[in-house]
Automatic annotation (TrEMBL):
<dbReference type="Pfam" id="PF13393">
    <property type="entry name" value="tRNA-synt_His"/>
</dbReference>
<keyword id="KW-0436">Ligase</keyword>
<protein>
    <recommendedName>
        <fullName>Histidine--tRNA ligase</fullName>
        <ecNumber>6.1.1.21</ecNumber>
    </recommendedName>
</protein>
<comment type="similarity">
    <text>Belongs to the class-II aminoacyl-tRNA synthetase family.</text>
</comment>
<dbReference type="InterPro" id="IPR015807">
    <property type="entry name" value="His-tRNA-ligase"/>
</dbReference>
<feature type="domain" description="Aminoacyl-transfer RNA synthetases class-II family profile">
    <location>
        <begin position="36"/>
        <end position="373"/>
    </location>
</feature>
<dbReference type="GO" id="GO:0004821">
    <property type="term" value="F:histidine-tRNA ligase activity"/>
</dbReference>
<feature type="region of interest" description="Disordered">
    <location>
        <begin position="1"/>
        <end position="25"/>
    </location>
</feature>
<dbReference type="InterPro" id="IPR036621">
    <property type="entry name" value="Anticodon-bd_dom_sf"/>
</dbReference>
<keyword id="KW-0648">Protein biosynthesis</keyword>
<comment type="subunit">
    <text>Homodimer.</text>
</comment>
<dbReference type="InterPro" id="IPR004516">
    <property type="entry name" value="HisRS/HisZ"/>
</dbReference>
<keyword id="KW-0963">Cytoplasm</keyword>
<dbReference type="Pfam" id="PF03129">
    <property type="entry name" value="HGTP_anticodon"/>
</dbReference>
<keyword id="KW-0030">Aminoacyl-tRNA synthetase</keyword>
<feature type="compositionally biased region" description="Basic residues">
    <location>
        <begin position="8"/>
        <end position="18"/>
    </location>
</feature>
<dbReference type="InterPro" id="IPR041715">
    <property type="entry name" value="HisRS-like_core"/>
</dbReference>
Length: 499
């Protein structure tokens, strides 16, 4: 009797697919990121900042509603209800959880409280090229310092960090002040709580200046802008609804010398004074070529209350069509004196900077003139199954001296497959020991890097079998020393010993 069981099983088989806005990362990317994070950490600690880790999940009300993409479900965050019906959310940045931590432990922490944090954050936003729903940030913040000296120091630290990563002369830290912007918005009639939403829309329009240009900002300040303006297609972003006069005042801020005619409100003058002080501090410390005042810097998050800053890379790269493209911003931050105060009912001064790790890693990859391969482990092949313990002992000797190594754990029947495996792992060499070598107390070491070079020059199979290029024998007692010689010859790192 026929059965439809196999077809039912096939129909229920899940499809292997990656969610939109997320990415898998391989050993090459992870290795480069790990090295970059270590460099950043050293600079942060040089400035006296200490490590802190907060969880991925926070109570939704603790995070607050500060994201730019508030027209999407959950207002830009991924949220769910706990079994006690309280709403929880994946963190959308590392600053809001810091504010919760400081408020919760306020009386125990030294103030100013200087911390750094690295980790994944999540945005429930529309994904696109280079825009992910999960990405990594590396933040440093000073909480409890009311003067703009703390803002100036953060900017100096960011400059030192980018230089430590090999970007000297290829970046600028741009600084502006939300108080200056607020003073301008007051001047065009957008003061007061009733205009809070429109003010934020205007600020986000200015924040897109580098991406959409002056005409794009004009559209966003007025009726709105299509994703593809010429064809009027794609997503439509609703504008701030400013009239022509208001729009011209705002646009004048984005031009050199613009904004000088604004009414001298107390808010505006306070912002200008803070910018002048920051400029004097960074210039006095010798950072004038790396840090500058720029009126186009806004930052999209609502919680900023004073100076805001952005790290912009100034070199160009080529897109998929070979056209030059400016890489742009790789991090930013600012002063947020009200974020910790949400929990305490009083203002708590705070300032910080966040590096977009994935974007910065991508930028650094463009600067590598010669891509150095990420080498895999030394592979000990298995010639005799009954000698598995002995092969594991050879691997243990290599690992003890800080050499990445592994024994082949697949089906050892086919020796060719073991060599193919080592090639796919980009192994620098393999260790071979059959019964004859074991009886003689020797091993064979095959240098796969030199072997690949030699193979390119050999066209005859008989010659290949006869020469066995880049393969040599040594005493088993010399195994570690000879493998190290191969690794050193090719510049393969090793030496992180166990124990």
């Amino acid at each position: 009797m026929a059965t439809d069981k196999p077809s039912k099983l096939k129909a229920s088989k899940p499809k292997a697919r990656l969610p939109r806005g997320f990415a898998d990362r391989g050993p090459g990317e992870l290795g480069a990121t790990r090295a970059m994070l270590e460099t950043i950490r050293k600079v942060y600690e040089l400035y006296g900042f200490e490590a802190l880790e907060t969880p991925f999940i926070e109570y939704t009300d603790a995070l607050g509603k500060f994201l730019p993409d508030q027209d999407r479900p959950n207002e830009g965050v991924f949220s769910f209800q706990d079994d006690d019906e309280q709403w929880l959310s994946l963190r959308y940045d590392l600053t809001a959880p810091l504010a919760r931590h400081v408020a919760e432990h306020f009386d125990k922490l030294p103030k100013p409280f200087r911390s750094y944090r690295a980790g994944w954050v999540f945005r429930n936003e529309k994904p696109g090229p280079g825009r992910f729903r999960q990405f990594m940030q590396f933040d440093a913040d000073t909480v409890g310092a009311p003067t703009v000296a703390a803002d100036a120091e953060i900017c100096m630290m960011m400059a030192d960090t980018l230089e430590a990563l090999g970007l000297a002369g290829k970046f600028v830290i741009k600084v502006n002040n939300r108080k200056v912007l607020d003073g301008v918005l007051e001047a065009i009639g957008l003061g007061g709580d009733e205009n809070a939403g429109r003010r934020l829309t205007v600020l986000r329009a200015i924040d897109k200046f580098d991406k959409v240009g002056i005409d794009g900002v004009r559209d966003l300040l007025g009726p709105g802008r299509w994703e593809n303006p010429e064809a009027k297609s794609g997503d439509f972003t609703k504008g701030a609804g400013l009239d022509e006069g208001q729009t011209q005042v705002v646009l004048s801020m984005l031009t050199p010398g613009g904004g000088e005619f604004f009414p001298a409100s107390a808010t505006y003058l306070d912002g200008r004074r803070e910018l002048d002080e920051i400029e004097a501090l960074v210039n006095g410390a010798g950072y004038q070529e790396r840090i500058r005042i720029d009126p186009s810097v806004v930052r999209g998050l609502e919680y900023y209350t004073g100076p805001v800053f952005e790290a912009e890379l100034t070199f160009t790269v080529s897109d998929e069509k070979g056209r030059p493209v400016r890489f742009g911003s790789v991090g930013g931050g600012g002063r947020y004196d009200g974020l910790v105060g949400r929990f305490r009912g009083e203002a708590v001064p705070a300032t910080g900077f966040s590096i977009g790790v994935s974007r910065l890693a991508s930028a650094l990859s463009y600067l590598k003139t010669e891509a150095k391969p990420e080498f895999g482990p030394v592979v000990v092949v298995v010639m005799d199954r009954d000698q598995t313990a002995h092969y594991m002992g050879l691997v243990a000797q290599l690992r003890k001296e800080g050499i990445r190594a592994e024994m082949y754990l697949g089906n050892p029947k086919n020796l060719g497959n073991q060599f193919k495996y080592a090639d796919r792992r980009n192994s620098p060499c393999v260790v071979i020991q059959g019964s004859d070598e074991r009886a003689a107390g020797t091993v064979q070491i095959k240098d796969l890097i030199e072997g690949a070079k030699a193979a390119a020059a050999i066209t005859d199979n008989a010659e290949w079998r006869e020469s066995r290029p880049a393969q040599f024998s040594c005493a088993e007692a010399e195994l570690v020393a000879k493998v190290i010689e191969v690794l050193d010859h090719h510049g393969v790192p090793h030496g992180d010993k166990l124990g």
